[in-house]
Amino acid sequence: MTTFLVTGATGNMGQSLIGFLLEKEANVKVIAAVRDVVKVKKTYGSLKNLDFRQFDFKDSTSFSDALAGVDTVFLLRPPQISKIDAYFKPLLKAISKSTVRQLLFLSVQGAEQSSMIPHHKIESLVKTYRIPYVFLRPSYFMQNLTTTLYKDIVTKRKIILPAGKAKFNWVDVSNIAEVAAHILLNFNTFKNKAYEITGPDNLSFEHAVAIINRYVKHPLVYKKVNPLSFFLIKKKEGMATGFILVMLVLHFLPRFQKAPRVSTFYSDLLGKAPTTLDAFVKREKSCFEKETL
Ligand SMILES: NC(=O)c1ccc[n+]([C@@H]2O[C@H](COP(=O)([O-])OP(=O)(O)OC[C@H]3O[C@@H](n4cnc5c(N)ncnc54)[C@H](OP(=O)(O)O)[C@@H]3O)[C@@H](O)[C@H]2O)c1
C-alpha cells in the first residue's frame, strides 16, 4: 500500500485530488495534511483510506510527524506564503531526510522562465535536495471565478481587474487534479520532468464574462481598471497588500506577454478533451446566479 500526503487538502486542488486518488485506486492510503485536524475531519467525514495529520508550513516542528512513513507527497504553495527560504527550505530538507521517495509539486505555467516567482525557487530547491519530482505547471484556474473573484461577481455583478484585453488560458482544477492523481499513481513514468497543463481556451475576461452571461439572468460587467485603481479599490475593501500585489502581477503582466501556450497533456494522457470555459460555467451555473454570499 502506498501512502500519500496531500498538502493544501482543504483548498481547490487538494480536495479534488483526494477525491480522484481515493476513487481511482483501492490500494492507497491518503493523508490530508491540515492545520486544524478536528475542523477538517468534520468537513470530510469519515472516508475509507483517508486519514488526517496536523501540518503547518509555518511550523517546522509539525513536519516530522506529518511525514512519518509517507512514500509520496503532493506539495503546493499556499498563495499566502511567499517566503520560500523561511518556510519551504526547511520543509524540503525534512522531506529529503524522510521516507518520501516521490514528490509532485503544483507549480505554475512559465515557472521555468522567471527566477522571481516563488514556484521557480521551490522547483530549484526540490532539485537541490535531490528529491525525485514531477512539476505540474497549470495555467489560469477557472475556479478563480468561484473563489478569489467571486465576491465581486456576487455582490457587484462585476469582475474588476487590471487585465485589459489580455488573454488567459483557462484550466479546470478538476482536470489538473485528475492528471495529478494519474501521475502520483504512475510516478516512475513521469519522474524528474515538468509538464504544462492547460485548458483549450485562450480567452480575455471580456470573452469570459460574455460566456457567463449566456447562463445568468442578471448579467455581469467586466470593469477594466488600471493597476493603481485596482490597488486602491482592493485596499479599501481590506484585502491584504501582499495578496493585492499577487493579483496585480497575475492579471496585469499578461497584457505585455504573448498569449499562453496551449498544452495537449491532458488529452494525450487521458484520451479525452479538457473542460472548456463554457462547460465549466454551465456546470457551476448556480454559483454565478447567486446574488448574495
Ligand atoms: N489560481 C490560479 O490561477 C493558479 C494557476 C496556476 C498555479 N496556481 C497555484 O496553485 C496554488 C494554489 O492552489 P489552490 O487554489 O488549491 O489553493 P487554495 O484553494 O488557496 O488552498 C490553499 C490551501 O493551503 C492551505 N494552507 C494555507 N496556509 C497553510 C499553512 N500555513 N499550513 C498548512 N496549510 C496551509 C489551506 O488550508 P486552510 O484550510 O488551513 O486555510 C488550503 O488548504 C498556488 O501555489 C498557486 O500559485 C494557481
TrEMBL record:
InterPro entries listed in its UniProt record: Ergot_Alk_Oxidoreductase, NAD(P)-bd_dom_sf, NmrA-like
Name this polypeptide is given: NmrA family NAD(P)-binding protein
PANTHER family, per database record: PRESTALK A DIFFERENTIATION PROTEIN A, PTHR43162
Native species: Maribacter chungangensis
Xref: Pfam families: NmrA (PF05368)
Domain NmrA-like: 3-228
